[in-house]
Prior knowledge:
Blueprint: H1 2-10, H2 22-32, H3 38-50, H4 58-69, H5 75-91, H6 95-108, H7 115-131, H8 135-151, H9 155-171, H10 175-192, H11 195-211, H12 215-232, H13 235-252, H14 254-270, H15 274-290, H16 294-306, H17 314-330, H18 334-348, H19 354-370, H20 374-400, H21 407-418, H22 421-442, H23 448-464, H24 466-476, H25 479-488, E1 494-507, H26 509-515, H27 518-538, E2 542-547, E3 550-555, H28 564-589, E4 595-610, E5 616-620, H29 622-632, E6 639-642, H30 643-649, E7 655-665, E8 669-678
Parallel strand pairs: 4-6
Antiparallel strand pairs: 1-3, 1-4, 2-3, 4-5, 6-8, 7-8
Amino acid sequence: MKRSNLSTVLYLALSLGATAQPQRDSLLAISRNSQNSEAARLQATADLILRNWIAPHQDSALALARRMRAKKGNERLAYYGSLVDGNIWSKRHIGDSVQVYLDLAAELIPDTTIASDRAWLYALEANAANDRGDWIAAMEHAKAGLGLAREVRDTGMEVQFLLQVSSAQRQLGETMEAMDALTSALAICEATGDSVALVHVYAGLSGNLGTVGDQEAADGYSKKNLELSARLGRHDLLATAYLNMSHPAANEDLDLGIAYADSGIVHSLAIGDVSTAQVGYGMKSRIQLFAGRYEAALEALDQAIAISPDDASENRAAFLGVSRASVLRKMGRGREALALSRALYDRYKNSKDVNVRMWVASSLSSSEQTMGNHREALEHYKSFVQLQDSMQAEENKRSVIRKEYQYEYDKQALADSLQHASELAVQAEEVRRQKVVRNGFMGGFALVALFAGIFLTQRNRIGREKKRSEELLLNILPEEVAEELKEKGEAEAVHIDQVTVLFTDFKGFTAMSEKLGPKDLVKDLHECFSAFDRIVEKHGIEKIKTIGDAYMAAGGLPMPNSTHASDVVQAALEMRDFIAEGKARKIAAGLPYFEIRIGVHTGPVVAGIVGVKKFQYDIWGDTVNTASRMESSGEVGQVNISETTYMLVKDEPGLTFTPRGKVQAKGKGEMEMYFVSTG
Length: 679
């Protein structure tokens, strides 16, 4: 029976595939070999779990930990069992249980233990500090573990600690330092071939770039995260990858965002990860709420509540409860919301978690206000403010020991890459304001008065900079769309029958990132994209967006015209020539260089504005997907066009075409394609 249970734990390791990380192969070999002692196999399996190299069902992992702690006379094995316990409870966000096993592990660890054993204790302590929001302690523990990992030259462990360091630094506002840590982790993963760790690095890069307001780049890394997770086929990686993609997908298509959330939930539950599944239900509820589907939003929250374990953390239970009360208020079910808010307040008013006490006080204040109980609403709002003040006082104490961060350097570095310093200032302010709004959501939507004050302050500033704001609007939206937005306060999405869409992508961009430092890489990318901007402007086509190292533009919008196909093909050829000239110069200088693929397709699209706060002009439809497939099905140094585009430009003077016949395109089957060139 014991051997069978261990096999169950190891099941997911069998589908990981080959890796350049010999340490994982060695641990897997030890854990699978029935000739080894059970203690040796248990030890190896625990190491695999702690390193995230296998992802067993959480209940199986807890059973494994119990067996390890039950081994009499083997203190080291019991120590690792406590670490596995703490690791799983940390994933479930049950802080009290994490602390129990952390304390037990600290008591068990021998004074003579090796550095790598001590390092895992730091990892667990960093997780515990992270869960309680003590970012300084989390960073200190992670850096201590990082030193030990480097001492024993354990690259897999080093990446884990770099990820913990970057997470804490990001929470402390030290985004440039966080990016340095992530860049170091990325270099290690690509050198060792540790694709599992690379998934987590992509997630970290996405989070950090989102924090500084570069949402396009953040979404690009989320996409890479999902693609790599899908290749690895692990439930835990796919769960977080789908949830990370849910929000960006919802910006384009609400139902697609919900589908991603559903996928994340399914993969979470497959390994017993109820906590992550609840996050998925919460995201699904917020998207449904945004769409005005209140019943569906409430149903998603009820599903999250229904799967809560008996030992669910106060933080998670309170959050779900106040979220449910908020939806009930929006549905006009004020009496139910008030009853729920009062029950939550009575249950959690003495919680040790200040956030929980804030949420329930805020929720009750809002519910009392909804029912016209103004005196009671004010009383609980005062309680909320007092709790908020106490948290701010604690934060001020912590800030005394924080390392001062040079924000201007960060802004300038980003300005160099985007060439829009004023836009970045607005983006940074928006990120800060959205963070406040997000915290308000978690608190039960009761910070209306506080938000109003912030809004008025920002409105006055914006009033003084109205001209700059209008210029910025024209910089991010087509003129016709910007005018409609200013006149009506909104811009309707429109269907355009024929638009020609262009996609570019650089070959070997990841390899380039290994050879160039982050600053040089961004500088080269900025040079290319700036040239592309000038080219599309010259040909009267519209830049849509950049996605990581990809560039997207379209002709024939926002105002339809008859020259869109020719305009886009000519622009594509100029882009190709610009990159070819740059490649020749770089080769002559002995420097790394970019190579490019370009794809073009023509068809109908829907065009309009994405979002309600950060406006972005975007296009949707199968035409966009097909243009992307033209790029990925092309070859380096070539402009690959579809048959539809070919029929529109085949008689253009100065163009020559090379038929490729039917070429397999991912998700599209076989399609006729042509290379186009000049001469």
